[in-house]
Write a structure and sequence with these properties.
This protein is of the alpha/beta class and 364 residues long. It has helices at residues 2-6, 20-25, 38-47, 53-84, 97-105, 117-134, 138-144, 203-215, 265-273, 287-296, 320-333, 335-350, 355-363, and strands spanning 12-15, 29-32, 89-91, 109-112, 147-149, 163-165, 188-192, 220-224, 241-244, 258-261, 278-280, 300-302.
Length: 364
């Protein structure tokens, strides 16, 4: 969005009302769309961590994104497109209301990737029955759109024929100092489980396991829990850990020796773009696939549940904290090797074009 605005083009962002402050603080015009009621979303969100992969794909991609979210967003999206007649629609892969309207009007459209390409290809296929109800042929059309992704080819071979890779300067350290670390001299560890976990009933167990893992380690850690979670629920916090609701990860990634996360695409990509190794504790959705790619490239370790099918296991149990502590210790002890692999990925990412260069292809 910044790249479009810097090119003197007008930008309008249509999103759920909860994102108003985030969009306006970034300097963009915001239009509020609709969103499903919490009573419809909550049961799906609670089911996702324990559902089988097939059930989770239907619940998340078909029922939540293609059905509930698209239906709620469609009236505002239709009004906005009819009003502004955009030259280009940039869409989230799981935001389908914009696709419905753009397909209707044959508006030039590109998909901005969030996760791995094969994961998003599969998500689209899961959503396809609902998409075809909106407009026959829409699934095939979506597959042909330019697919813009920050993931490098070595980590993310893509089934989308029109895949274009780019990198964002925001993925790197912003250079702003941060003073929220606990006192001491140990390595800095940034721990984040994203913004969605705080809405889930098992959030307390996940955060508590992380605190217990960090308690006995000679590190200094920053744990972010999201703005919807009450840290008082966690009880005693180890002195080597500081808890914050949220930080801009660009402010910390340039300082840390390790990132611990659940494998969300934003955190994984941000860490790798900054050349920082990871310990990944996947919980649901694309996080298992992201975690495997991190391990496969040698940039980190995955901590999964003790069951036989990792995709259907909640990894938080009585033995999670010691296994997580062990993984952190292994990566920090062999930091040069894991960091070298992460830096190699970072170099590949930084060799791709910047967003402004890509948008010139679509708008000029």
């Amino acid at each position: 969005m910044d790249a479009v605005r810097e090119g003197s083009d007008d930008v309008v962002v249509i999103a759920p009302p909860s994102m108003a402050d985030q969009v306006t603080e970034a300097g963009h015009e915001f239009l509020a769309g609709g969103e499903p009621p919490e009573t419809r979303i909550a049961p799906i969100r609670e089911r996702l961590p324990v559902a089988s992969p097939a059930e989770a794909a239907v619940l998340g991609n078909r029922e939540l994104f293609a059905h509930l979210a698209a239906d709620a967003m469609l009236p505002a999206m239709t009004d906005a497109v009819d009003r502004f007649r955009p030259d280009l629609v940039l869409r989230d892969p799981c935001e389908y209301a914009s696709a419905v309207v753009a397909y209707r009007d044959r508006t030039r459209t590109a998909t901005i990737a969030i996760s791995l390409a094969d994961v998003e290809w599969g998500s689209m296929l899961a959503a396809s029955p609902v998409l075809e109800d909106y407009a026959p042929g829409m699934t095939r059309w979506l597959r042909t759109l330019p697919y813009l992704t920050r993931f490098p080819a070595s980590l993310d071979p893509s089934p989308f024929a029109a895949t274009v890779r780019y990198h964002s300067l925001a993925s790197a350290n912003s250079g702003r100092p941060i003073v929220r670390w606990p006192a001491g001299s140990g390595p800095l560890v940034y721990v984040s489980f994203g913004t969605v976990l705080g809405y889930m009933s098992h959030a307390t167990g996940v955060f508590r396991a992380a605190l217990d893992a960090l308690d006995e380690l000679p590190v200094r850690a920053l744990l972010t829990v999201g703005r919807r979670f009450d840290p008082a629920l966690l009880g005693l916090v180890p002195p080597n850990v500081r808890i914050e609701p949220w930080v801009d990860q660009a402010d910390v990634l340039g300082q840390v020796g390790l990132v611990v996360c659940h494998g969300g695409s934003g955190t994984v990509l941000g860490a790798l773009a900054a050349g920082v190794p990871l310990v990944v504790v996947p919980l649901f959705a694309d996080q298992f696939a992201n975690a495997r790619r991190v391990a496969d490239c040698g940039a980190g370790i995955v901590v999964v549940g003790t069951g036989t099918k990792e995709e259907n296991q909640n990894p938080i149990g009585f033995d999670t904290a010691p296994r997580l502590a062990n993984a952190i210790s292994i990566v920090l002890a062999d930091r040069a090797s894991y960091r070298s692999a992460a830096v190699q990925v970072a170099e590949e990412i930084s060799s791709s074009p910047l967003p402004a260069d890509l948008l010139n292809r679509f708008l000029r």
